[in-house]
Write a structure and sequence with these properties.
- By secondary structure, the chain is of the alpha/beta class.
- Helix content is about 30%, strand content about 20%.
- The chain contains eight helices and eight strands.
- It has helices at about 35-40, 50-60, 80-90, 105-115, 130-135, 145-155, 170-180, 210-220; strands spanning about 5-10, 20-25, 70, 95-100, 120-125, 160-165, 190, 225-230.
- The protein has an eight-stranded mixed β-sheet.
Length: about 230
């Protein structure tokens, strides 16, 4: 298992908890706007990484200060040891949050069955017809993503869906299609794209605060809660 970083985080990354994030290297997608692009594109041998035991020792030393741990990436579910790692973190007494792109429903189901995941944040990249374009994989079949969304909608664990909005990829029509797909979801966040540099594709743009508010208003009839991130 390739762990590439550990970072203290604010409450927004794990609702209601002071948490640390563990970043795992590698991803099956190539989203042009990925803000962790170096974890996707840089060969593993060129990344700084930590052994699992080092991370567990660090977390153990933070008992009483941290409430939870976020497993992020990259895509954590491509890691063969992610289930065992989640169990080890849970055994230390921490709540565990998983960030995922939803491409591995069987592994997601196994984690839900294990009881070692307390919260899942799943990226919904775009409306289904535009998924392949948005994830940078020609011919991508989004059936796996639909299966993962269905798992979370069963509400076996607390969850959120989220979409990073990029002017070059998203329209109101896309958001309405996503909202119908996720109809009834308890929590959906719209995140405004911010060019942090080092992206897979250059020349991308976010939306104005008012445009983001308009997107949110258009889909609220379909979902229990719609909130904005990255909007003043």
């Amino acid at each position: 298992m390739n762990i590439n970083g550990l970072q203290k985080l604010a409450l927004v990354d794990f609702p209601g908890k002071m948490a640390a994030t563990v970043f795992t290297g590698g991803c099956n997608l190539r989203c042009p706007f990925c803000h962790n692009a170096l974890l996707v594109t840089t060969p593993a041998e060129q990344r700084e990484h930590y052994k699992v035991r080092e991370v567990l020792n660090f977390l153990s030393s933070r008992k009483g200060f941290l409430d939870g741990v976020v497993l992020s990436g990259g895509e954590p579910l491509i890691q063969d040891g992610i289930g065992e790692f989640a169990a080890a973190v849970k055994a230390l007494g921490f709540a565990v949050k998983l960030d995922t792109n939803g491409c591995f429903p069987d592994r997601l189901r196994a984690l839900l069955d294990s009881g070692n995941i307390d919260y899942v944040a799943m990226d919904v990249k775009n409306s289904l017809p535009k998924y392949s374009l948005t994830v940078g994989i020609p011919g991508f079949d989004a059936a796996c993503v639909r299966e993962s969304t269905a798992l979370l909608l069963e509400e076996r664990v607390d969850y959120e869906f989220r979409t990073t909005l990029v002017r070059e990829f998203h329209t109101t029509a896309d958001l309405l299609e996503i909202a119908r797909w996720l109809k009834g979801a308890k929590r959906y966040f719209l995140q405004n794209f911010v060019d942090s540099g080092g992206l897979i594709q250059s020349g991308l743009h976010g939306f104005s605060p008012q445009e983001m508010r308009d997107f949110a208003a258009s889909i609220r009839p379909f979902l229990a809660e719609v909130s904005l991130r990255g909007v003043d």
